[in-house]
Amino acid sequence: MALKYSPQVVEKFRQALEFSGGFEVSDDLLSGHAGDRRQGAEIRFYRRPDAAVINGLGYRVYGCPHLVAACEQLRQDLEGAELIRAEQLEPMEIMASLGIPPEKAGKILLLQDALVACCREAT
Asked: Which pTM was predicted?
């Protein structure tokens, strides 16, 4: 049985492809990492080192379309937000908003780990 993706996941995945072409990693960015490519999911979030807000949020992700779409959703939702928002992230809300099935919860939880690590760096 083929896995079907919600229209929200398809749209965020398309947006992620557009975003990834213009995002460049540089030495002045802070980052946070979670997961392991050998286990099927790896995320690294990047941000500019602004003191109180999330600016220049970007990511590199290896994983399923659900995970890619969730990273893009976070990037859009958190750009310009206070750093504390990373600690308040509710991965299950992201899953519900994108129609991500419960069996993907483990991979989606990696988002929180990577984002919190990114926002805690140099704060």
From this structure: 0.90
Cβ neighbors of 92 (< 8 A, separation 6 or more) are: 105
Q: Count the Cβ atoms, other than its own, within 10 Å of residue 110.
A: 23
**AA identity, residue 51:** A
Instruction: State pLDDT tens for residues 12-44.
Output: 999 998 887 667 888 889 999 999 999 999 999
Q: Which domains does the chain have, with CATH numbers?
A: 26-120 (3.90.1010.10)
- What residues contact 90, with CB distance under 8 A and at least 6 apart? none
Residue of 82, 74, 25, 27 lying closest to 50 (CA atoms): 82
Cα 104 to Cα 66: distance, rounded to the nearest angstrom: 8
